[in-house]
Amino acid sequence: MEMAVANHRERSSDSMNRHLDSSGKYVRYTAEQVEALERVYAECPKPSSLRRQQLIRECSILANIEPKQIKVWFQNRRCRDKQRKEASRLQSVNRKLSAMNKLLMEENDRLQKQVSQLVCENGYMKQQLTTVVNDPSCESVVNTPQHSLRDANSPAGLLSIAEETLAEFLSKATGTAVDWVQMPGMKPGPDSVGIFAISQRCSGVAARACGLVSLEPMKIAEILKDRPSWFRDCRSLEVFTMFPAGNGGTIELVYMQTYAPTTLAPARDFWTLRYTTSLDNGSFVVCERSLSGSGAGPNAASASQFVRAEMLSSGYLIRPCDGGGSIIHIVDHLNLEAWSVPDVLRPLYESSKVVAQKMTISALRYIRQLAQETNGEVVYGLGRQPAVLRTFSQRLSRGFNDAVNGFGDDGWSTMHCDGAEDIIVAINSTKHLNNISNSLSFLGGVLCAKASMLLQNVPPAVLIRFLREHRSEWADFNVDAYSAATLKAGTFAYPGMRPTRFTGSQIIMPLGHTIEHEEMLEVVRLEGHSLAQEDAFMSRDVHLLQICTGIDENAVGACSELIFAPINEMFPDDAPLVPSGFRVIPVDAKTADAQDLLTANHRTLDLTSSLEVGPSPENASGNSSSSSSSSRCILTIAFQFPFENNLQENVAGMACQYVRSVISSVQRVAMAISPSGISPSLGSKLSPGSPEAVTLAQWISQSYSHHLGSELLTIDSLGSNDSVLKLLWDHQDAILCCSLKPQPVFMFANQAGLDMLETTLVALQDITLEKIFDESGRKALCSDFAKLMQQGFACLPSGICVSTMGRHVSYEQAVAWKVFATSEDNNNNLHCLAFSFVNWSFV
After folding, report:
1. 457's torsion region: left (phi>0), alpha (psi -120 to 50) or beta?
2. What is the pLDDT of residues 341-376, one digit of tens each?
3. Element holding 367 (H helix, E strand)
4. Which of these, 779, 765, 771, 769, lies nearest to 805 by C-alpha position?
């Protein structure tokens, strides 16, 4: 096989180095001719006919070669390049598959050992049971293993603990100490990041990962030991003691603080021993476990803000791989002390899937990301280096975590808590921005308004994706402009303090993303125009730096975030960032009812409690079992605002009001995207969920029959009000209703109408009537509007309208009619205008 490939390459190379002369014989290219052609190929692999002729004229050594032969040479050269690249790619895939096959074989051996161990344990239990049954007088004797006494304050004692930690970690990474099961939704394969597993029936929560990384073991160990660089929940990590272990390794005493994911639970800290050593087979190991004693560790005053969690034997096993790179095994095994959080949050602290997503998978992804950046496989926007963009992402995430947690040693103090809606307002007077810019020395500090709430049946990825793509649905652009104004230097550079009109449109410019697109970094430009005549030609755009994570709906246990901060349009590397945003964390519904959250010591807001509009109390109680088993998630909102000393109370009031409006907007969005909410796609559930929609459907149908003398909907004699709404909703024509205001806006649409406009029921209320018609459609509507108001209906000719996404929609005919509201005294009052677009389709 190899000889055949070699012969093929030799023939291919030989054909490239020969050409036909004027007599029709093959003549070999000279070294000078090949060198000249290679120079041109390096500049332009596919030269045009004019360029080839120019080459022959300028290069005398090519004068005796036909242009056609030059063309053939370049074709063969490109083909050879393509073959080389393909061969290199196949070799890379082969190495990856070989390494993956080795991992799978090791996993298979481990599973076989686990099966054998379970069989032995089963036989032993049967034997013990038989002994107890046959001899009732026998007493059970439990032998407690006697560990040698170890002094954690002496090097010898610490070395003994380190060796024990190493043995326990290796038994978890490659042995059967933990009953591992495959992580849901994470199937191994040549294109996957690695093999992931979570614990089953063990103390605490544990996750394991193994994969192939194209970095050397020592480099990987350095990266993983720097936990704050890749573990976003790590607030700080300090090494307080380090000494050699005597066998070429090192022992460190480490104190680590982690952030709490919500405002409803305290943060965690760890006091651990970390042991770094190498094995006889050339592998590199970093293992870690907690040291006993809740009071251990530095700075007792700072540690009082945390709950001491336990790290069981965890770490990293890194083995050099044949052909370069490393095979890495990661184990994270924690006891997060779930007793200290409200019952509704306990699944978050008792879930191995959450630990896998936050720590284990994140570590492996981060290393893979750095490996690809080192190899030049990752391209970023705006000419920024990967390290700079990675620093921006870390600063955004850290700033948001600081705001959510509000640690006292960072200068945060609670100003007040809005008892009605559980909005916490905290201030940080020590967090001045004047250390970045002297022109901002008047600032008094930063104020944060934050809240956490429970959502029912709202997919986190869908919610975050909607908030990212439809910012106008929840954001106030003038508030964004106010926050951006604090980053400007000088009194006359405050666009938020001048009359400004924002168009509501946003432009998202991507900067970079991780290898699996689980995190995206981007710049958002909010378009604004000055209303002042003297500033008419000055830009009032607002720019935001933004990260979006967790928008993959198939990721199990993944947290979804949208974090943003105003930034100068020059986008400097050292720009000050004051992040705000949203975090949505899925919570497994396996504990008590959601009402436990309301009775817990920590207060929260249940958005869905105000959305329950069931038909009757008995039906609501009948559905309680299904709601308790539904999916739930915790939404945390935190918005930060810089303030001046003399405006602290005013900014606090504005912040509370703004966060309250954001909560209300999220409530509407949650209602629209929740499968259990008032969603028209549920058909029969529309009636109990929206009585107004039922009534409006009746008025639309009756008014159509009154004006046009025909039926809009085919309803049988026994048809209920519910069936009227359902028929209207499922009607093939796009039916929309708009208000009678000076600038009519839409207030209702059936499914076909929403599809035609490419919008949702929530966003429909911001669309005006004139916005959907093109110029000829608007003229036709204006010419027939008087007829519509006089006789009650009008038929418009075929035309073109425009969806919210800018796509053109053609329709054969449009019918408009007045919709009257029937009151109890049988008086008809004009309620709105209805439009029906017949046989519409996208152009």
Report:
1. left
2. 888 888 889 999 999 989 999 999 999 888 888 877
3. helix 361-374
4. 771
